[in-house]
Amino acid sequence: MKKILITGAAGFIASHLIKKFLDEGESVIGIDNFYTGSKDNIKPFLSEKNFEFFEHNVIDPYYFDVDEIYNLACPASPPHYQRDPIFTFKTCVFGIINALDLAKKTGAKLLQTSTSEVYGNALVCPQDEKYFGNVNPNGIRACYDEGKRAAEALICDYNRLYGLNAKIARVFNTYGENMDINDGRVVSNFIVQALEGKDITIYGDGLQTRSFCYVKDLIEGLVSFMQSDFAGPLNLGNPCEFTIKDFAQYIIKLTSSTSKCIYMPLPQDDPYKRKPDISLAKEKIGFSPKYKIEDGLEKTIEYFKKKISYKNTSV
Question: Does the annotation mark 81 as catalytic?
Fold first, then answer.
């Protein structure tokens, strides 16, 4: 039995990771301060004998004797990470320093969930791991973009100086069950607006693109990456690309909604093209998304239907 630490444990991606490890008989420790994570996401695990949870802010040091560390602690959607940008940057930087120091003390393997945001408003498409990015260090997204880039620099330096086994996964847009209904990102926004019959809000002209990966595909990629001998950086995502305008129409169709699209000004530094080149992930860990976009979205739509129904009956 491995002992696995997951930071940001109450987040939607982490909750799927916890379930996978518990189903496989591993021992899991989760920590979260509930800044954006939901207690509902960890509630199913609290009675499990192999799961322990501690409410803790990763900005502050911590110690657990573990074999593996998955660092997922950080607000990840623009409304959340821009709410307190200094806190976001501290979470990125102090959070990874504390995780790396723990890995140094225990000899644990570490996997950092970095982000496609390190590529910024990319001038190349698709983005591969050799691309250095086009990031505005002074903009409203910099707290997250530059925070994650700084975390990558720290990981590489710890690996070089101390011989750690720390890995960098650059996670592209991911969706699925356990997303926050108020997450503020494209998939959750569009589905909730469509299910509630509200106008679907598109920022800009809607011709900017995104690529969406179902969470279960991402989880398999993260675990395979952790077990590999490769340190990364490694893109993990689904290269199936949509314009935002087309994606909105697709959600309207899948939900049989009467919603109409409305257009709002594009936020500062919003990326125009976002599509992962996953050639390296295929080569190094055999990663290739298995879920078709319609299958993942149907599961996600059903999840949000239940959330909205519960919200309405609880009012």
Answer: no
